[in-house]
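Before relying on records like the one below, remember that each one covers exactly one chain. Contacts with other chains, cofactors or solvent are not represented anywhere in the record.
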Amino acid sequence: MNATSTGLPQSALRAAGPVAQTLLEVSAVLVVGGALIFAGVMLLLAFAIRRRGGGKVNTRWWLLGGGLVFPTVVLSALFVYSEFHRPPWRPIPPPGALIVGVTGHMWWWEVRYRDPATGAEVVTANEIRIPVGRPIYFGLGSADVIHSFWVPSLGGKMDMLPGRVQHLQLQADRPGVWRGQCAEYCGEQHARMALHVVAEEPAAFDAWLAAQARPAAASTTAPPREIERGREAFLAHRCNACHTVRGVSEESRLGPDLTHVGSRLHLGAGTVANEPAQLAAWVAHTQQLKPGARMPSSGGRIGEADLQSIAAWLAQLK
């Protein structure tokens, strides 16, 4: 699973944290052990063929050795090994952990943090930012059907069930961007329900979280009239009926929070890169890019001038 639509790594063989490294080592031991057992069985088979007709076989020793002693020794060894190497999991967050809430929707991810300065909730979508070297304690749930949270380079996966909160602890040991994927078939657009994890140095993460906690602010470099026209068009065409933009409209949370959508790497849960041209195309041709998505295509319903203004306004919300 190395090749992805975004070109970002999504592989359990490229461990980027202690949990993923542990899983990789355990998997390697199991693969090597399985290969040795297979080779041993083949040697015994060859030995038996060579001795065909050469004498009576003592079935008692074969049954005791191959049916009792061998599996008991192998399974006991695997149990002891896995107990000493299993990834950390705790029923409560470990000291110093960052708590992140993730809710699966058909077909996008809602991500929630708590602003340490004010205690206010910070909501983003389809992208998780984390600090390097700090345990991340995820609270995972679902708003509709069963989804599954999986970022192969950072660790194991966990099902996300409606009405229940599951937990998963991960950690990144270096800065980078890794792709994750819903690992439980959840409907028509299951394959396009991706997310990205961005690991940053702690100071950069703190600055990002503080910026995300603030309401949307107009760009100081874009033409003011164009930006204002985009904001007006966003409200006039009732985009705010589904999307929140803090500081502009907070009427609904049906769709992803767009307060700082311009700072994200991708749109539509990893469907396309987040660029102004792609943003306009996404709004106009949503159903062509992601058939079955809950957001209708707006091309033909919203005029081209308004469409471009909305895209320009959203793109500068960083």
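Residues 277 and 302 are 16 Å apart (CA to CA).
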